[in-house]
UniProtKB/TrEMBL annotation:
Binding annotation for CTP: 102, 112, 130-133, 153, 171, 175
Protein name: Coenzyme A biosynthesis bifunctional protein CoaBC
Recorded family membership: In the N-terminal section; belongs to the HFCD (homo-oligomeric flavin containing Cys decarboxylase) superfamily.
Residue span(s) of domain DNA/pantothenate metabolism flavoprotein C-terminal: 6-220
Reaction(s) catalysed (UniProt annotation): (R)-4'-phosphopantothenate + L-cysteine + CTP = N-[(R)-4-phosphopantothenoyl]-L-cysteine + CMP + diphosphate + H(+); N-[(R)-4-phosphopantothenoyl]-L-cysteine + H(+) = (R)-4'-phosphopantetheine + CO2
Length: 235
């Protein structure tokens, strides 16, 4: 598509989960299916953008590459960081839908970790991964270049005493991005499903510009949610 609200713009989308290796046969992973991220990439392409999809581990196949949609596969958070760093330089919009592992095993065992005769259980020490979203926002501020619109995603379960919207509002401010997409997640909610329920929150300065104060609520297919996010980012 060469027409549409995002014609002439470059959009980078991250999707799926990262996989953090523990030894040659084991890893730490998460339940991200990649469906929301792929839906975002397809919606952005349909809106006329030049799209680069950076995809981690997904339950679904990556979309077929087209003239305005390229796909890059990564596995670890460190690989994702390197890929985003490069791609974001020339991007107008970054949609950070990937479920990035917050921690990775501190030491990679070059040989498979074995059971020992004494019955001892191994202890796995974890180490923080970079916050790619926050780092990209920071780098943009320092270098005065990078995506004009950075969109973060937050999967929150909430609990009896905390409102997920409140958590999302705090996360939006902490990360410094323009938009934050909240979805309420649970074991049988959102992950791997074709439907979702999201709230699109805008940073204060963006809200003022758009003249709106309410978070936009969308319940429906992940494709419908993606369309709403892409439309908001284009605005
Ligand atoms: O802090 P939290 O993990 O809830 O933030 C979610 C958002 O931050 C998502 O957009 C996710 O892609 C991004 N993220 C990241 N690097 C991490 C963790 C999360 O870019 N290490």
């Amino acid at each position: 598509a060469t027409s549409g609200p995002l014609a002439g713009h470059t959009v980078v989308v991250t999707a799926g989960g990262t996989r953090e290796p523990l030894d040659p046969v084991r890893y730490l992973g998460n339940r991200s299916s990649g469906k929301q991220g792929v839906a975002l990439a397809l919606e952005a392409a349909a809106a006329g953008a030049q799209v680069h999809l950076i995809a981690g581990v997904m339950d679904i196949q990556a979309p077929v590459e087209q003239s305005n949609l390229s796909v890059e596969r990564i596995e670890t958070a460190d690989q994702l960081q390197a890929a985003v760093l490069t791609a974001a330089e020339d991007a107008d919009v970054l949609l950070m839908a990937a479920a990035v592992a917050d921690f990775k095993p501190a030491d990679y065992a070059a040989a498979k970790i074995k059971k020992t005769d004494d019955g001892a259980s191994p202890v796995i020490t974890l180490q923080r991964n970079p916050d790619i979203l926050a780092d990209t926002v920071q780098r943009r501020a320092q270098q005065h270049r990078g995506p004009k619109v950075i969109v973060g995603f937050a999967a929150e379960t909430g609990d009896a005493s905390t409102d997920p919207l409140e958590l999302a509002q705090q996360k939006l401010a902490r990360k410094g991005c323009e938009l934050l997409v909240l979805n309420k997640v649970g074991e049988n909610l959102v992950f791997g499903q074709d439907t979702t329920e999201i709230y699109i929150l805008a940073a204060d300065h963006v809200q003022q510009k758009l003249g709106e104060t309410q978070a936009e609520h969308v319940a429906g297919s992940k494709q419908e949610a993606a369309a709403a996010v892409v439309a908001r980012a284009a605005q």
